[in-house]
Design goal:
Elements: H1 4-20, H2 31-46, H3 50-60, H4 70-85, E1 89-110, E2 115-116, E3 139-140, E4 145-153, H5 159-167, E5 176-180, H6 188-195, E6 200-204, H7 207-210, E7 232-233, E8 271-274, H8 276-284, E9 306-332, E10 337-347, H9 355-377, E11 384-391, H10 394-397, H11 399-407, H12 409-415, E12 416-421, E13 428-434, H13 439-448, H14 458-471, H15 477-485, H16 503-509, E14 513-520, H17 535-542, H18 547-565, H19 574-614, H20 635-656, H21 663-670, E15 694-696, E16 704-706, H22 708-715, H23 719-748
Parallel strand pairs: 3-7, 4-5, 5-6, 6-8, 10-11, 10-12, 12-14
Antiparallel strand pairs: 1-2, 1-9, 4-9, 9-11, 13-14, 15-16
Helix pairs in contact: 2-9, 2-18, 3-9, 9-18, 11-16, 14-15, 19-20, 19-22, 20-23, 21-23, 22-23
The structure holds zinc ion.
Amino acid sequence: MHSRTHRRLAGAALLALASGAHAAPLLGFDSAGARDERALEARFDAALSPGAIRERLQRMAAEANQVGSPHDKANAEFTLEQFRAWGWEAHMEVFSVLYPTPREELLELVGPDPFKATLTEPPLDATSARTQGALPAYVAYGGEGDVTAPLIYVNYGMPADYEALQRLGLSVKGKIVIVRYGAGWRGLKPKLAHEHGAVGCIIYSDPADDGYGQNEAYPKGPSRPERGIQRGSVLDMPVQSGDPLTPNLGDTPGAPSLTREQSKTLLHIPTLPISWGDARRFLAALDGPVAPKAWRGALPITYRVGGAGARAHLVVQSNWDQKPLYDVIATLPGKSSPNQWVIRGNHRDGWVYGAQDPLSGQTALMEEAKALGALAKTGWRPARTIVYASWDGEEPGLLGSTAWAEAHGKELKAKAVLYINSDTNDRGFLGVEASYSTRRLVDQVGAEVRDPETGASVRDRAVAALRVRALAPDAGEEIKARAKQAAGGELPVGDMGSGSDYTPFVQHLGIASIDLGYGGEGQSGGVYHSAYDTFEHFERFGDPGFVYGVALARTSGRLVMRAADADILPLRFGNVADTIAGEVDELKKLVAATRERAVATDRLVEAKAFALAADPTQSWGPPDRLGPVPAVDFAPLDAAVARLGASARAYDAAAEAPRPGGTDAANQIVQGVEQAMTDPRGLPGRPWYRHLIYAPGLLTGYGAKTLPGVREAIESRRWAEAAEYIARTAAALGAVSAKLDAATKALAG
Ligand SMILES: [Zn+2]
């Protein structure tokens, strides 16, 4: 990309701008308070050390540390002991969860040229040679079984791929599907395969996506090697995260646990992840039509769809044991508002050694805790209580964070003002997904933290990178939308879907949340969830010098300290109103597009019926008619958004010039504003997800859907449900406006 010199020059110019920003006001502080806060942050920065992060990461990633392993427990004990040594009040909370591990795995090609998949990852560095305690590669919470059936290739196994398959006149019914990783969340692949009638699912990593199609393979380069396997969870997390047998633990204490048959989040067909080295033999054996162009990967074979000649034998059996989770919780009690909590978390469990995922984030979080502890030892106390959490069991299903958030749900709803999450961290650009009310806070912090390599502010780097990406010919709609958001120089912030521990806090409890991390220039993708996500790989390709670990600590440390110390909570609501207004417009366009598509489909059905009558030897495969699209009444949402705009602007203005003595009452109210965006009845078919503004998509997995109740109803043409969720969302926005009006009154007197 750009040359280093060019970057450094740009960096110096931006640095001059950034230093001017230090005289700028700080969200929620008066000018004297801002000066003290920045002095505190300078002392915080001075206590951060890349060498300490390196040493900690090497220790914690030395052995396999998945849920239930001895090293996971040892890491929990080490974390607890460190927090205490740094001056925190810390304890361990233990939960028992269902955690399946492999008992038997077999995959073979049956027929004239039999082949048995190796299913193993040979050692490629010193860490991956220490296999003691590591589990065979598998996906957690898939089904079990022993099946022999024809094999069929379905590309990424996403809804569009099944539509393409239907156009080819093929079906996966009674077959074993082989799908490649990418394009959508892992768990959707076996789920959709099962819904389409498949009896087994094999997921492989194509070299086009994260192997030699991207870069030289490990250990020569960073990319996924021939035998590298991506493990992962297939728990149906878009329905609910957490232990599949004790859902809603916090809402119904003492409720009897479910049986596996009763669980709504366990999947049904046997599923195995494999390497491209194994997959190649299976794909090469397929017959039938040549795969559509977009389906072909980077293996030196002719990609075919199959479905007839080649047969596979797949066996998956698991041990369905209960395992302990060790959440480590540490507290620095607040001086003046101890009942308002700022919470910061990262998970600690990996799939194997977990150097990048999750220990890159976990070790940075610990560095923050060390620095905050050092400040506390010199007499500083935060105004609000700071809670640091090292979660267990994130990988199988956000188990540790969900258990803790549910068990303490009532208290959290009353006290938590902000949850700040990180997970993996790499060299590169600051990436943030966050509640809309936190955007100004995040932007201010991003403007003041400097990139360790270029010296530019991490905000300016993120803005610049996004603008360039949005101009690429293949730029997606989401990138373009975010670039538009960044057009004024504001840090681009994504919407909250799922994929890490913030989900129970924001989606279930309605606590304003931020998820952040650096990435984009590090090269950890090729070892994601494999035995090669090791200290050796991370030091070479993830974050050489561990400087982005320090950048993460600086960034999230500032978010924590500013939220903990600001006189007025640093949440602002103009962005909330503007963003939701834009989303309502999008939904109106979606209805119009849906109507156009229905009309076009009707025409196509008629044309094909005509063609079939003229030439009955062709199989034209007409699509199903979509049905009429009624008028959708957005008036309740339009009115609610207009009122929210006025209430939000009034609050934001009042927060700039508060009446002395009004701030406590206002903070009390603002603490609960995000909760007003939730509905206790939840989203259609998944009541655990209560947030009406953002949710993971039921059919995208990690990706966010905004105004999800309304949007997913329109997408699936459930028109009565769309009207119902327009009313519910409007009511929630009304409650948000009422709270903001009350807070404004408190501030203005
Ligand atoms: Zn992770």
